[in-house]
Amino acid sequence: MAIQLTESAAERVRKYLGARGDSVGLRLGITRTGCSGYSYVVNYADEVGSEDVVFEDRGVKIVVDPEALALIDGTEVDFVKNGLNEAFSFKNPNVTGECGCGESFNV
Hints:
20% of the residues lie in helices and 45% in strands. The longest helix is centred in the first third of the chain and has 14 residues.
C-alpha cells in the first residue's frame, strides 16, 4: 500500500515546502502518547535515511520510517479548514479506536 494525500493536503505541503526551500518532502510518523496509545507526527523531511520508506503522491515526497509504516500504511492525509481552525486529518484503515478528543488512536 502507500500513504496518500488529498489535493488539499498536497497543496498545503507544496506551499510550505516551497517557502522553506531546503526540505525533500513531508515526514509522517507516529509517537506513543495520549490516552489511546499513538498520535501522528507531521514534520519536514530534510533528508531521507537509509531505512526510510519514500512514497510520492501529487508531486510531494512522503517519508516514513518502517516502524511507523506498519501502523499507518494505507492512510490518507487531508488538510481541512473549519472556521478559524485548520489541521491535517488522517483516515487510517488500521485504527481500531480513538480517544474522545481525537488526538490519539490505537491499532
